[in-house]
UniProtKB/TrEMBL annotation:
<dbReference type="InterPro" id="IPR059000">
    <property type="entry name" value="ATPase_P-type_domA"/>
</dbReference>
<dbReference type="GO" id="GO:0046872">
    <property type="term" value="F:metal ion binding"/>
</dbReference>
<dbReference type="GO" id="GO:0006874">
    <property type="term" value="P:intracellular calcium ion homeostasis"/>
</dbReference>
<keyword id="KW-1278">Translocase</keyword>
<dbReference type="Pfam" id="PF12409">
    <property type="entry name" value="P5-ATPase"/>
</dbReference>
<dbReference type="GO" id="GO:0019829">
    <property type="term" value="F:ATPase-coupled monoatomic cation transmembrane transporter activity"/>
</dbReference>
<feature type="transmembrane region" description="Helical">
    <location>
        <begin position="957"/>
        <end position="980"/>
    </location>
</feature>
<dbReference type="InterPro" id="IPR008250">
    <property type="entry name" value="ATPase_P-typ_transduc_dom_A_sf"/>
</dbReference>
<dbReference type="InterPro" id="IPR001757">
    <property type="entry name" value="P_typ_ATPase"/>
</dbReference>
<keyword id="KW-0547">Nucleotide-binding</keyword>
<keyword id="KW-0067">ATP-binding</keyword>
<dbReference type="InterPro" id="IPR004014">
    <property type="entry name" value="ATPase_P-typ_cation-transptr_N"/>
</dbReference>
<feature type="transmembrane region" description="Helical">
    <location>
        <begin position="1006"/>
        <end position="1025"/>
    </location>
</feature>
<feature type="domain" description="Cation-transporting P-type ATPase N-terminal">
    <location>
        <begin position="148"/>
        <end position="205"/>
    </location>
</feature>
<comment type="similarity">
    <text>Belongs to the cation transport ATPase (P-type) (TC 3.A.3) family. Type V subfamily.</text>
</comment>
<feature type="transmembrane region" description="Helical">
    <location>
        <begin position="212"/>
        <end position="232"/>
    </location>
</feature>
<dbReference type="InterPro" id="IPR047821">
    <property type="entry name" value="P5B-type_ATPase"/>
</dbReference>
Length: 1147
């Protein structure tokens, strides 16, 4: 009972399997949800365990290897499943996704006997048993019901008993990345199916007396394992160093004392004292008192520090996602803290999340345990390997029949038939397929683009739609003040081009004081827009020297900052409105709120005034209607349509009775008086228009997603070429239901803006006949309408997504929602942003690109050091180059196996085989070198409209492999028949088989032709235009081809040397015969090259025509065809109302 009482609200009781709940679920019903994971419990069964041990002994450990590959089989073979009501008997859990049949992992169930706590740890996160729910839930569920008021009550601190109890529940506050020992890594690496196959192959080759070849493969495998172990351990150590953060933290206890403890001891509910100089925060915490300047670049990639203010006292449920401006995140650097401690220095915060439940822990978890990539190329590669395995089975049966007919011993029959398997399934295939990605990653790094998820490089090739943030991405980060329009009576006054020319008054005070800047080392830090705004006024930012923040000049108020007018323009005595202004309270800007506000006082603490700044429409909604000028909307539309960034300002005088230190934001921001507009010019970056034009010519659809005004966004869309001069913009307005009306949806055409797109651009893009622009119109929608559309008009959402180009006033959550909705239409979506407000969308997109000065950011898979979007076409070109190269390498390795497979079977038929050094020469000298250097070719300079195919099992690829294989086998058989038909031909010794029969004429003829086939097929399947530069740009590849071609010609045409003897080649003196073999190889090359070009140019399209035209599998293409045939959509100026049932829902 004591433990239960001490846990406090939201932590009332941990649960056990056979007692009453010690932890009750504190969350409201609408928040209560278990983790979406299937859990099955198991317990060891003694006789099953011993049976498996005996089986492992009898199978020489192969059974344990199988259990290592398939853990579920090991659990089923040794354990018995239990239902949840027998939880106390369970030892292991098997975990799987709720909507999948595949099991993901096995974890051990932990039991705390003293508290009867049952839990397991999966991917770093602790799941505890809650009996009332009958399920395991994340431990963080216990803090999800905490209110802001409860967090403020926690400022008194936890007792040591409370802290100990909570630590048992939540575990230590550490993000622990496991770093395995070299011995453990070696054990896991050697048990990899690839290396097991290598060991099997080496034993087989040694048995067949291929000692040199087996020794070389063994040495290469050992080097490969060593490099792999070093890289894996290095990456784990680096990630552990980045993730693990242990510092000393000052914690307040319930006795009022402050105690210095290790950050490992922190638990949710602990009250921590943040020093004035800041610290590297080891947990997520809610800021309750004071202000903090924070560098969050590690999490977001955004290098500009952000200001955090204290959380207000209310009964609202606290959520870090909805209150990021009051949340200090783990791993971020607190630069300075002030106004929170007893002496006015430092700040006070309460821990809300620890370990892997923090924001940093979530990001580290996504790196450690990434979601599997659903990419067709990878799936098809595995299917093709299965096909090669079946082919190996056919070859094995054929070789057994041939070898038995030639009176070969059973031992040799087994060895030779199994050798076929090692030939047809190339052991170097996985390594060869990754070389293209490695080269692409290296080239991207050279151009300042860093990648933390290399498999996504290939996915870049399939991007069909790219979303762009506006400010700082398409347009310049900095803004120039264009002018100020102050309200005069019921109308706007003239535009004042420079705030320095404004008369002393509330507008000037608002411009100077409504910001969240702070001083660090005498330098103002914060939002570039606010820095520009303060600079334009000429006012100076200062902070009180008193640690308590008390400034006698402004009464007894605790002051955050003081704004002083220029010394040369100090007002005459008695003119109070232009005197210095002290900022007492700040309510920070948030993308979802679209506004910020401050509370200020004048000298002596008199004249308290609240100012609000934000989106003009939002600011006007908080103002008294009579204070908003009658032509507010037309004025705003005029400036926004010209591409200006417009901010609205308002004010309100506060009464003397108002407690300025505790007044709530809701009270401050109501019944305001509209002051005026600040107009700022945001220039489009010079690279943006060219990049958008390139993407549109390549049939890649660009979309703008911004938090700015919709008319400003449309203007920028026209300026950068997303919307062309001849195209209409149709605005979408959706409104939710109210007490007096139902939800409605309406489309109306805007008044348009002056086009700045070049006429030639229009002609070029129209000539392409792009499907997304064929309708001649674009839809523009704002965040409020988007929310209403998703909630009340889901049947229209897919159509609007198909034609939507501008999404304005979108919150960070809505940006993520938009990306996911587009993905449900089968788009491969890219997202480019600055990494701060776009963090969720960057991670949700198939390809996320963060424009950041950081070398790498966990905010997105790709980070570009360039400050413009020129990296986007580069990324797509590198992705296409990598995918096409991966295709070429896969086909080459497959053809290499098939060439060797055919040659060995032909030689088996003739009672001989390739020699030890012949295998070595082909596999390690010819094929390996060519496979490595052929992937070095860079991407094409142009972005072609056609995307490369991603399926290995498509008709062109399969028919190409099949026809090439037939031609290659025919060439080998022709070489053998030509040799046998010669007058000087001498049959080989029929009493000896295999390599013991070397040298002989049959083997030499096959060796000659296959050597040329390996070289020529690397040329045939190496693709160039339109995705890669032509072959001759790859100098290393061309050099290798010339060297190997010269080497093969020398081996064929010239007299015998020690090299010929080493390779066991038969000496043939007939020069006409030798030239004839080279001619056969040349003919083989010519026919294969011609065939490959015909297939590339669509020679097999006639087979597609035979089956008739099929509907596309991609939903967006089907929807586009439907819209193209519906010219009456969208219905202009006709209100639409929700239907009773939804056709398609996208959440």
């Amino acid at each position: 009972q004591d433990a239960r009482r001490s846990c406090g609200p939201g932590l009332d009781g941990v649960t056990s399997a056979d007692t009453e709940p010690l932890i009750k679920d504190p969350r409201p019903k609408e928040l209560s949800a278990v983790s979406h994971m299937d859990v099955q419990g198991y317990k060891w069964v003694c006789w099953k365990v011993w049976l498996c041990r005996i089986g492992a002994l009898c199978s020489l450990g192969l059974l344990l290897v199988l259990f290592n590959w398939r853990p579920r089989l090991g659990i089923l073979a040794r354990c018995r499943s239990y239902i949840r009501y027998w939880l106390k008997d369970i030892i292991f859990f098997f975990l799987g996704e709720a909507d999948e049949n595949e099991w993901r992992d096995t974890v051990q169930l932990h039991s705390e006997k003293k508290t009867q706590l049952r839990y397991y740890v999966f991917e770093g996160m602790r799941y505890i048993w809650i009996s009332r729910k009958g399920a395991f839930c994340k431990a963080s569920i216990l803090t999800e019901g905490w209110t802001c008021a409860y967090l403020h009550n926690q400022q008194q601190g936890l007792s040591k008993a409370d802290q100990s109890t909570r630590k048992q529940i939540f575990g230590a506050n550490v993000i622990d990345v496991p770093v395995k020992s070299y011995l453990q890594l070696l054990f896991e690496e050697v048990l990899n199916p690839f290396y097991i196959f290598q060991v099997f192959s080496i034993i087989l080759w040694m048995s067949d007396r291929y000692y040199y070849y087996a020794a070389c493969i063994l040495i290469i495998s050992l080097i490969s394992i060593s490099v792999s172990l070093y890289e894996i351990r290095k990456q784990s150590t680096t990630l552990r160093r980045m993730a693990r953060l242990i510092v000393n933290v000052t914690v307040r206890r319930d006795t009022g004392e402050e105690e210095c403890v290790s950050s490992e001891e922190l638990v949710p509910g602990d009250c921590i004292v943040i020093p004035a100089e800041g610290l590297l925060l080891p947990c997520d915490a809610a800021l309750l008192a004071g202000e903090c300047m924070v560098n969050e670049s590690m999490l977001t990639g955004e290098s500009i520090p952000v200001m955090k203010t204290s959380l207000s006292v209310s009964e609202a449920t606290y959520r870090s996602e909805s209150q990021p401006r009051h949340t200090l995140f783990c791993g971020t650097q607190l630069i300075q803290a002030k106004g929170g401690g007893p002496a006015g220095n430092g700040a006070i915060a309460v821990v809300t999340c620890t370990g892997f439940f923090t924001a940093k822990g979530d990001l580290i978890s996504s790196i450690l345990y990434p979601q599997p990539l659903d990419f067709r190329f990878f799936r098809d590669a595995m299917k093709f390997l299965l096909f090669l395995g079946l082919l190996a089975l056919v070859g094995t049966i054929y070789s057994i029949v041939i070898l038995l007919n030639s009176n070969t011993t059973w031992q040799e029959v087994v060895i030779r038939s199994l050798d076929i398997v090692t030939i047809i399934v190339p052991p170097a295939l996985p390594a060869a397929m990754t070389t293209a990605t490695i080269y692409a990653q290296s080239r991207l790094k050279h151009h300042g683009v860093f990648c933390i998820s290399p498999p996504r490089i290939n996915i870049c090739s399939k991007i069909s739609l790219f979303c762009f943030d506006k400010t700082g991405t398409l347009t310049e980060e900095g803004l120039d003040v264009w002018g100020v329009m102050e309200v005069s009576g019921e109308v706007f006054g003239e535009l004042v081009p420079d705030p320095l020319f404004l008369p002393p008054g509330l507008m000037l005070s608002a411009l100077a004081s409504c910001h969240s800047l702070a001083l660090l080392g005498g330098q103002a830090l914060g939002d570039p827009l606010e820095l520009k705004m303060i600079e334009s006024t000429g006012w100076e930012l200062t902070e009180p020297e008193n640690e308590m923040g008390l400034d006698s000049e402004f009464g007894k108020h605790r002051v955050l900052a003081v704004m002083r007018p220029p010394a040369s323009e100090l007002p005459s005595q008695g003119n109070s409105v232009s005197q210095p202004v002290a900022i007492i309270r700040r309510f920070l800007f948030s993308s979802s709120l679209q506004r910020m506000s401050v509370v200020t006082v004048g000298p002596g603490g008199a004249s308290p005034v609240a100012f609000i700044k934000g989106a003009p429409e939002m600011v006007a909604s908080f103002c008294l209607r009579e204070s908003v000028p009658s032509h507010f909307s037309p004025t705003l539309r005029e400036y926004a349509s010209q591409g200006f960034r417009v901010l609205g300002f308002a004010y309100k005088h506060l009464t003397k009775e108002t407690n300025l230190s505790t007044v709530e934001r809701v009270e401050v921001e109501k019944d305001m008086n509209f002051l005026g507009l600040l107009v700022m010019k945001n220039q489009v970056k010079p690279e943006s228009a060219e990049v958008i034009r390139t993407l549109k010519l390549a049939q890649l659809r660009p979309v703008m997603v911004t938090g700015d005004n919709i008319l400003t966004a449309v203007n920028v869309a026209r300026a950068c070429g997303m919307v062309l001069s001849h195209e209409k913009v149709i605005f979408v307005h959706a409104s939710p239901p109210t007490a007096s009306s139902v939800a409605s949806l309406q489309f109306h055409q805007g008044d348009g803006a002056v086009a700045t797109t070049d006429t030639q651009d229009t002609i070029d893009i129209l000539a392409q006949g792009l499907y997304q622009n064929s309708a001649g119109y674009h839809l523009a929608i704002n965040g409020m309408s988007f929310a209403a559309l998703c909630d009340h008009f889901p049947e229209y959402l897919p159509k609007i997504l198909m034609r939507g180009t501008v999404y304005a006033r979108m919150t960070p959550e809505q940006k993520t929602q938009l990306v996911k909705a587009l993905q449900k239409l089968n788009y491969r979506v890219g997202m480019c942003g600055d990494g701060a407000n776009d963090c969720g969308a960057l991670r949700a997109a198939d390809v996320g690109v963060s424009l950041s000065e950081a070398e790498a950011s966990v905010a997105s898979p790709f980070t570009s050091k360039s400050d413009n979007i020129s990296c986007v076409p580069l990324l797509i070109k590198e992705g296409r180059c990598s995918l096409v190269t991966s295709f070429s390498l896969f086909k080459y390795m497959a053809l290499y196996s098939l060439i060797q497979f055919a040659s060995v079977l032909i030689l088996y038929t003739e009672k001989t085989n390739l020699g030890d050094f012949q295998f070595l020469f082909f596999d390690l000298v010819l094929v390996t070198v060519l496979a490595i250097v052929m992937g070095r070719g860079g991407p094409s300079d142009e972005l072609h409209p056609q995307r490369p195919p991603a399926s290995l099992l498509s008709l062109p690829v399969l028919s190409s492999l099949l026809l090439h294989t037939v031609l290659l086998i025919l060439a080998q058989v022709s070489a053998l028949l030509i040799t046998v038909s010669q007058d000087w031909y001498v049959p080989l010794n029929s009493t000896v088989t295999g390599a013991a029969n070397l040298p002989n004429m049959e083997d030499t003829s096959i060796f000659t032709l296959t050597g040329f086939q390996y070289i020529m097929m690397s040329i045939v399947i190496t693709k160039g235009y339109p995705y890669k530069k032509p072959l001759y740009y790859n100098f290393l590849f061309v050099g290798a081809l010339l060297v190997f071609f010269a080497l093969m010609c020398w081996l064929v045409l010239f007299r015998h040397t020690i090299i010929h003897q080493l390779l066991k080649l038969y000496e043939i003196n007939d020069m006409s015969y030798k030239l004839l073999l080279i001619a056969v190889a040349a003919l083989n090359f010519f026919i294969c090259y011609l065939l490959e070009n015909l297939i590339d140019r669509g020679a097999l399209n006639c087979l597609h025509n035979l089956r008739g035209k099929r509907e596309s599998k991609k939903q967006y293409k089907r929807l586009d065809a439907h819209l193209a045939g519906t010219p009456s959509w969208p219905p202009l100026n006709q209100p639409l109302f929700p239907t009773q049932c939804s056709v398609i829902g996208v959440s």
